[in-house]
Amino acid sequence: MTTPPSKAGTKGVPRAARERQVLDVATEEFGRRGYEATTVAAVATRVGVTKPLLHHYFGSKQDLYLACLNPVGDRLLHAVRTAMTGPASAAQPTAVTGPASVGQPTALRVLHALFTALDGQREAWFVLYDTTLPPDSDAARRAAYYRRAIDDLAATGTADLLRTTGSSDPLDADALAYAWRGLCTALVRWWVSHPDESPEAMAQRCARLFAAGRTLLTEASE
Question: What is the number of alpha carbons within 13 Å of residue 36 lying toward its C-beta?
Fold first, then answer.
C-alpha cells in the first residue's frame, strides 16, 4: 500500500511548508522557554493552526521536541567535527575572513562554525542544552546523546591544547572542557540578545576577546 502525497495544510498552505513553520516556531519556543514551559497550544497559536492539527502532524509534545532537536543536534555536531578537522594555525587570532575560518586556531574555527550553524535560529542552542527535560525520557536521552558527542570533541580539543602547554593532568582537561561549554553557552546567549551581530562579526569579536585575555594573562604572570 502506497502513502498518498501530502495534501495542502490549513488555509491553502502546503503541508510541508506548514510543518516547516511549526518546527521553526517550536524550536524558538523550546529554546526561549525550555521544554517544561513550552506548550503545544502556544506553538499552534503562533503558527495559526489548531492544536489537534499540530498533534496530527507531530504527535505529542515530546515528539515535537524531538522533531526540533534532531536537525539541531545533527547540524551542530557536524559543524564542530568539520571545524576541528580543518587546518589550525599558531598565528595570533585577529579576524575570521573566510567561510571556513581556514588558518585560524581551532577554538575560533569551532566558534565560527557554531555561530554559522545557528544563524537564523540562535535559540536552537538552548533546545539542545535544555535543563527542564523530563528525566529518563526519550527527549532527555536524545539530547544527552548529542551533548556527549559534542563534549567528547571538546574534550579532545582541550586535552590537545593542554598538552602543548606541558600539562597532562586529566582534571585540568576536564575543567577546561567544562569551562569551554560554559563559554559557548554564554556567547550564544549574548548573541541572541544582539540580533544584528553576524556569525563573522561574532567570530571576529571572539578573536579580539581571546587576544585581550592572552594579554591580560601575560601581564598577570609578570
Answer: 6
